[in-house]
Write a structure and sequence with these properties.
Three copies of one chain form a homotrimer. The first copy, chain A, has helices at residues 26-38, 165-168, and strands spanning 55-56, 62-76, 79-86, 95-97, 102-109, 118-120, 144-150, 155-160, 174-179, 189-190, 193-194, 201-212, 216-219, 230-233, 237-244, 250-254, 259-264, 267-275, 277-280, 285-291, 296-302, 309-310, 313-314, 318-324. By secondary structure, chain A is mainly beta.
Chain lengths: 326, 326, 326
């Protein structure tokens, strides 16, 4: 994109309410937005949230290995940042265990500073809660620590640093940790809409939101147009687990398909409800179910407009469904 | 108001916790607040949210005409801004159709740049979703576009620009689009309070919140004391549809009258609940029912204090009920 | 703590994504965080939220005396600020009355400017609503005003200034006002978890959140490590009433113990639900029930990371449960 944009039209209130519109190159602004959108989906190096396979121990324990380090991460095409990562990806590798599993996570700290891991939304013994120096000693640079607990509760959990979390988390040190199966409100009728007893979930998408640090405004560690597009067919049922690992709220708006909020922080709601815009605050998770009812390209984005658009075009917290007819 | 205010007391944390209070003209601050409140309600030119009448076509289609342009708008007494408007008003004209109606909206773009309209919360074919260049071509300056869809779902919807929405929406390009009748929880008992089976709604108020652009902190396009006052009688039942078209949350606090939240984004809740403060995030809508139980003047405002008060007095996101005894 | 921290690592996005990490004294950052946490709990002068005893009048009226004044307040160890207080404490004294009580509050205004009191979430006659000059005259500096009303509804209410609330409230002028008993969902089964019919509440904690003014980021008027620690035993049931008197949202995360949200703004929910992170917006109150299920030290904090951590260590909106085994 080679257009030149000469004047910034901010979304801020101007003192006197006047805009000197004569000097604005409106065509350039139009073109910048159009070109930025047509660049989607864009290729970048690296993909976060990849499943992590355990090694199974003699006693059945599932053992996972995480390495924390500062590594290059391509947030958007051509923009490489010094991310703080688990196993070199943002979000860190996705861990999924069954209810009742014995879990061991070995953390190798290759960061230049200390760290620890808090298992947010997951029941653990106190000495595994990851709050140095209260529940464990700090895991200093170069050290290793072994976390061990039993997966006693279903969870839409997350793991992230607690020590200097204001630096380590925004810069990339967060991951998804799921325990057990997602419990859907099958057969229930909610606001007059029946959820089929026998529906099959075609996509289960953890969607991690960030807005600060070197990662910045992003979905699963990537900024538009590098965000992942989602492809489905008319009639597909989709589960999304929203995770907010940022510092601000993000009201996530899905065009066309109402979202049934069926769990808060991984705990099923006895009374699910529908919304087209789901507001997630830092630390919260909302699990939603939706049906791809119509074909076409349907964008899906944070509705804080400055988190998705700027004079240079679309960016940040936007992706889209590409729904094929059947 | 001719008082002089000599020192600003900010709501920001000061570094050392000390305040040099000796130089503050406290009486002037008192007077500024009092005078600013007594100025309510203030006359301004222009009123947003006015109902738009369709022309009915031979096949029953309801046809609406919208013109997008930059026009003068009096946000508060004497403050005229270059608003981006539909039909010269902020919010744009209110459109209300029945379930099953065929709808046609002809948009004439008199802005200096391109635009499009997204029908937020409304079910449409993909090529009517208003996301240029993905679902349609950009409607360039001087061009016209025809949106057509059938109103297949009840909706507390909104329409607004999507293209450079971070500029066009905060500056005024948003409107209310209602489909069908509001479905109230009549006859239900909620937290021990029975909602009468036969209640009559005396006021149905779409309340659009904004906080940025040239419109700034406002209710339905006006800043206090130019916000619209609401007049009712003891015993009246009121429906409010909150719409957030801004960039921040707004927790709307109604003095005295609890608000029954009965729909989220236009979809009725199976389990409504009461609140005195309703937090609306960007893109969200909450529909509430309340009863004017007591006579008097009862203010109604955003509870982010800096959205309603400043040293110069009350401003922004405040209005009031004037409830007459019977 | 005598460590020297040479370079600030902000949580802000950097323009180019590069961090010049070579000049950072990482050990100093590690040590600063550790020492700041070990300083908890720290002694400071003054405790807010202390119960206020009424004088009982001949007709049974409960009479309370409040004095508004600018007084010194130790927000964190060694940091004294010029707080705006009721009876010299932040939050102001806690008032608790029974349903049906006649209440009189005599306010003596020793501030340098006018004030008034709004009884947020409490039903009062209009002339007691505390919105000068609409419902009463301003209570000028040096004047006294008598508020009188009957406690006709149960309430998790708060009292605070309305006049120049953007200055007076963030600086400390807020307090807790409870009417009647907390109505718990005893005997209900919520998301598969049964709430015992006969549970005994061992702690009832009003937790007032602030983030601005001279008080700043704080829980009940104190910043970590001066925040109050909470001590309980395994099996204890705890009620928390969150109050947001600040200007921002605060998603409060309790490690390990899920929080059952059973009332919004003091009104019991017919359908309570669980969360590990409860997001409270300005003006809102959420009442939650939780069970101390496990021994240990479990932190409890706002999940906006910059509200709890900075390069110099932990601060602000953090406290902890110290749970003893039985």
């Amino acid at each position: 994109m080679e257009t030149t944009i000469t004047v910034t039209e901010g979304a801020e209130a101007s003192g006197d309410g006047h805009q000197d519109t004569e000097d604005v190159d409106w065509d350039a602004l139009d073109d910048a937005m159009t070109q930025s959108i047509l660049a989607f989906p864009a290729e970048t190096e690296g993909k976060g949230n990849q499943g992590l396979e355990p090694t199974i121990q003699a006693d059945g324990t599932k053992e996972y290995h995480l390495t924390a380090a500062i590594t290059k991460w391509e947030v958007e095409p051509g923009k490489f940042v010094d991310a703080w990562t688990y196993n070199g990806m943002v979000p860190g590798p996705q861990i999924r265990v069954d209810l009742g599993d014995k879990v061991r996570v070995i953390l190798d700290n290759q960061l230049p500073m200390g760290t620890d891991i808090h298992w947010h939304g997951i029941h653990t013994p106190n000495n595994m809660d990851g709050v140095a120096p209260l529940t464990q000693d700090l895991i200093k640079s170069g050290e290793t620590f072994v976390y061990e607990f039993e997966a006693v509760n279903p969870a839409v959990g997350m793991y992230h640093a607690h020590h200097h979390g204001h630096v380590q988390i925004p810069n990339g040190m967060f991951g998804v940790f799921l325990i057990g199966d997602t419990q859907l409100p099958l057969g229930q009728t909610i606001s007059g809409i029946e959820i089929p007893q026998n529906l099959e979930v075609t996509h289960e998408i953890p969607m991690v939101l960030n807005d600060a640090g070197v990662i910045g405004l992003s979905l699963n560690g990537k900024s538009f147009p590098a965000t992942e597009p989602y492809v489905g067919k008319v009639g597909d049922w989709v589960v999304v687990h929203y995770y907010n690992e940022g510092l601000q709220i993000h009201p996530m708006h899905q065009h066309q398909f109402p979202q049934l909020i069926f769990a808060k922080d991984g705990i099923p709601l006895d009374n699910p409800y529908w919304a087209d815009t789901v507001n997630i605050a830092p630390g919260e998770r909302y699990s939603v179910l939706l049906r791809l009812s119509d074909p076409g390209v349907w964008v899906w984005h944070c509705h804080i407009l400055t988190h998705v658009e700027r004079d240079e075009g679309m960016f940040g917290m936007v992706t889209a469904w590409i729904v094929e007819d059947v």
